[in-house]
Specification:
coiled coil; 41% helix; single chain; alpha/beta; carbohydrate binding; globular; 19% strand; 2 domains; Rossmann fold; 376 residues; Peripla_BP_I; three-stranded parallel sheet; binds beta-D-glucopyranose
Length: 376
Amino acid sequence: MNTRTRFSLRVAVGATALALLAAGCGTTTNEAEGGGDASVEEGFNVGLLLPESQTARYERFDKPYFEEALQELCENCELTYQNADQETAKQQDQAEAMLTEGIDVMVLDAVDTEAAASIVANAQSQDVPVVAYDRLAQGGVDYYVSFDNETVGQVQGEALLEALEEEGTLDDGEIVAIHGSPTDPNADQFKSGAMGVLEGNVDIAAEYDTPGWSAERAQEQMEGAITSHGAEDIEGVYSANDGMAAGIVAALKSAGVDEMPPITGQDAEVAGIQRIIAGEQYMTVYKEIRAEAEVAADMAVAAATGQEYDGGDEYTPTEVEDADGETVNAVLLDPVSVTADNVEDTIIADGFYTVDEICTEDYADTDFCEEVAGEQ
Ligand code: BGC
């Protein structure tokens, strides 16, 4: 669906945004060389391109949070939004259409980081700066915001080892590792962080990459691992995200397993949290997407208006290198590991979900829901 959002126009709010900037909320400072010449008072066009809609985060959090953050900074700005549904060519077309229509800055979460280099080149040839969102697109983008993705992988690997130790199965079994999409640079970082922790500490029966981060593909891969290694010998599963963990649980269930081995995840999807409280998934990684979207909006406003993003009071930008060796100013946020023990202190405390969203009828008799119901 072509979702085009127009922020309320003709409200004299440039001043509010400028006041926010002056108060250090907007985190723009010096004039950057060669930056855009759009102005917050007049407003400008921002293009947001997200990669897929199978993973819940994009439509549920990334897009609305970005929209809110942009409106806070620039009430006269207009957002054009597209989701590529995991299709590289579709994202290419969406980007081209946005550039033709006329945007002043592009915020890009690439389906395929290498292919995205041509989107970046195209934008920059039209003086449209690019903020890489969550995944570092190649081609020398202007800014990048994400989480520390190597740490995401480490946190997942450490949690899996901890669970195997708790269950006393660390030394006698094997694990299966199911990684994300090979065209997503984050997937490589999750893998390297996780495998750095797991390798040498546990036997790895099988390892797979999963094109498109597809839950169905993850399920098929898990079925293949079960056929080759036997469900009873698989003591744990490293899954790079919650969507794929759903497929992995389905494969184990259809092989007759009713007590799940420890399985990892990422994204703190409602379904992931529900599996955690029901004992079907060991952990997930909670990423504070609101902060990511806010930084992206700050970077986009800075880039479009020819200012330099400096992180303000809250963030210290760092430098990262993209796959072409280009240096990019980046903000990398910290991920948080979530198990049944800290759902309340993280997910609930942060207002990411309400108790009611998690404790639906099917989960009402879990320990977690009974305890929180007792507290209310
Ligand atoms: C994101 C994850 C997400 C995955 C699949 C990664 O680039 O960082 O949060 O689960 O893509 O969309």
